[in-house]
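CORE FACILITY INTAKE
Project code: CF-77B
Contact: R.S. (postdoc)
Sample description: multi-component assembly, two entities in total
Requested service: structural model of the whole complex
Turnaround: standard
Below are the sequence entries exactly as provided by the requester. Do not edit them.
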Amino acid sequence: MNKLLKKIDGERLLLGLAAPVLAVVTALVVTALVLLASGKEPFQAFNVMLDYGSKADSQIYILNKATTYYLAGIAVALGFRMNLFNIGVDGQYRMAAFFAAVVGAQLHLPGVLHILVIVLVAMLVGAMWAGIAGLLKVTRGVSEVISTIMLNAIATSVIAYLLSPGRLAELDASGNVSTKVIPDSGHLFNIATKGGSLYGFIFVAVIVGIAFWWGLSRTRFGFDLRTAGGSDSAALASGVNVKRMVVTAMLLSGAIAGLVGMPELLNNSYQYSLNFPTGIGFTGISVALLGRNNPIGVAIGALLWAFIERATGHLEFAGYDKEIAGVVQGVIVLAVVIAYELVRRYGLRRQQSRVGRQLAAQAVPSKNQEVSA
Amino acid sequence: MANHDIDITVSRGTVHALVGENGAGKSTLMKILYGMQRPDEGTITVNGERVELHTPADAIARGIGMVHQHFMLADNLTVLENVVLGAERLHGIGGRARNAIKKISDAYGLDVRPDVLVEHLGVADRQRIEILKVLYRGARTLILDEPTAVLVPQEVEALFDNLRELKSEGLTVIFISHKLDEVLSVADAITVIRRGTTVASVNPREVNARQLAELMVGSELPSPETRESTVTDVPMLTVDGLRLSEIDPDGIDRVVLDSIGFTIHKGEVLGIAGVEGNGQAELVEAIMGMRKPDNGTVTLDGKDISQALTRTRREAGIGYVPEDRHRHALLLEAPLWENRILGHVTEQPNSRRGILNPAAARRDTERIVAEYDVRTPGIDVTAASLSGGNQQKLIVGREMSHNPKLLIAAHPTRGVDVGAQAQIWDQIREARREGLAVLLISADLDELIGLSDTLRVMYRGRLVADADPSTVTPEELGSAMTGAARGHLEHPAQDAADTADETDQAGE
């Protein structure tokens, strides 16, 4: 019995690894073919990427980028675990970062408190923006896919309106429109390395990852959330208030989304300007898919994403087109989604037939009974 | 195993009815005949020729067409467009197609107008289009899956006229239903399916609805004798004046449950008989707090729980074995030990103060697996990989593990092999001895008669009849289930005085 148990578990692990490896290999092959088709030598390109991507300053760049992507990925993953597709992480983090920047610049508080307030404001704004979609879903039956996309567009307009001189922003010396700079007490520490400075927010990202894992797998709330995500009807029958869970999950997803802009705001720019990075919410979707909504998987996905971005950025200098980054990323996501689904189905079927065979061997009498029925 | 040893012969130019309870295997059989599912063994012969049906296209090529219970029409297209969709090569999409449709419509009295948008049509018209679609593709054998489920009585009559028309033109109709009076009025031959196998082929002129009901629910299984009464006079569950109305997909407000009232005492099993779809599922969900009744009260062990959330009700001591275990009782892709937590996440040993205790939950799952004889290689396999009977044993074990005061068991042994069935019966009886109150819903009359202390019959959302399980016969129950009998069901040989106090008790 025990032996079989181990076997199934080992197999599960193997199947779990098979999917992402399969996907990445497929992506590499397809990319190589694309490069070949455009008349370039692919292995040289991979070499350039690997070389440049593993330099010290690249490593820091990748870690900093991955911190942001990881938070976005976790925000999306939380929605996915509840069977909600929060496409609105993008709008949520931008709204959150903008208002956090505005509030942060107005305050003068002792260091830790100042940072804490900024982060809390960001989480609140993100949660509220996502909560709108949650409320619309449970009260009016609006699909969260539609409402969050629309909320993204609304966020863009709201920020564009408020981010102008005379409203919540000002024109700085170099002619840039931005919010006021957050005073020093609101700056988070950076770690100086020989590759550059590593954002201190990376530790927050790690804590978020641990909390995500623990919350989902070790608490009643997490169990209810996973139940509701796995089967609406079973959740209802088991006593989960599914509607409330939809709103709660959206609020939580939005709160985490609120953190996405924080590494940039607290560790780098200290203000929200027209240059504030956009589109990270969509990266988060890819990263969550890549990591299969698992906190460690998402971390690997975020790192891979940042690596590809960094490494392909240098390809231009070696005579390749930089658009190859998009090709690689696109193919990886597509391959991952397909590979996971294939492996999942295969695994489920395999386990079913294995259990069936195992039991048929030891349960001949009950089989006879069934026939006599 | 969904189906086994199915033998059915349908003659040309007849309406052949296939009856059986939901879950008896009718749909699986139909899927096989229409090429949607492959049989493991056995043969299908059409017009004397053995055929292999791999896809619906094969079936259509052999002249077999299917009218699904849920219509498959595009609302924003016209009747003509819907009919030719996917069959453009037959008569094109223009005038020739229109003529062909007219011809078929006239020939069988279907009265179809080709240029009306489908969204403007009612249910009966849509059904006729579905039939026409099948005929347009050259079907000579039509399979109709519960065609009357969506129709009102007058429409049913009109449909039956159409079917007779088809029959007189030499077409064959296979008609699936569990409405016995309808089957008797239209069919030329009837095959009864129970537990995945054909149990009888009868001539409608030689049987009545009662006998058919008996065949459908079966009476050959040994019923467990539990005559020593454990009923106390302490009420455990009291339902009073429960009424539930719901707006159906057509926008009509239907009363699903009406003035439902009963009391289950400690140590009592109350069985509810009834043809499926008469409100039993809704009653269970109302007691569980999954549906909000319009009015009425539910009292558990002296506490009014009418407004309580489902979780509160469960914590208050209701164990729930749902009718549809895949939808309501299991997380199919989660391991067994997580399924053991499902529904009892707030209770010991699964969690304490909001924190899960996976180790304790796993240990307790091992215990359930051993005590309830769940056949599984381990507790880490997914629930989906267990057979139906073993899934059910796990569910029963789980629900019994929290010392329930009331067990709601809806079809607890459906799709379960005989061994597991006896075991589940044993467990219910055991718990009843210890003072558990049980609400038992079942389609299996022997199960009901064998386990219940009190029997009620549900028909069209009302409790219309009651009976003493020690004297009632399946025939008597069957006639009440079809609405033919009401009130207290008495055995003719029984002295009325004997059962008088039973009536009082059951009639509360």
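Facility notes:
- Chain B touches chain A through 50 residues (CB under 8 Å).
- The longest helix of chain B spans residues 153-168.
Invoice: internal transfer
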